[in-house]
Amino acid sequence: MKIRCIANTGASLPEHDLxxxxxxxxxxxxxxxIGKEYVVxxxxxxxxxxxxxxxxxxxxxxxxxxxxxLFEVVDDRLSKYWRFNLxxxxxxxxxxxxxxxxxxFYDKLTDQEPAEVDLFKRIRYLMDREAEKxxxxxxxxxxxxxxxxx
Length: 150
Fold this sequence. Notes:
Layout: E1 2-5, E2 37-46, E3 49-54, E4 64-67, E5 71-75, E6 82-86, E7 92-96, H1 97-101, H2 105-110, H3 114-132, H4 135-147
Antiparallel strand pairs: 1-2, 1-5, 2-3, 2-7, 3-4, 6-7
């Protein structure tokens, strides 16, 4: 899945995406370049709000969450590495399987735990390669599915 940045400040966010206690104010400037495309490594939905995890312009070694209203989807193909996770509290998360199977994966990643940093580097490489595949390749696979015997 690929998205393109269409805005990079809190002033562009709807009121429900702002949270002054969390640092999300109208004055906030995100580490994003308008017009630039980003690969989505994970995303979540919580109470009607979508947040994408991407390697933004300040990327060091882990993806940052950014609110969906700052982007438009330019390639809606879902990654073959993604898994679905619905928490009892209603939080919907879509990410690669290790995000869910390794306890506190994202916390360990942001804390620069070597195993998690290495794992994300490898997953990022695979997902970036996958995202470079032209959409026409998927259309060819869809045509094969349509002609496959039942």
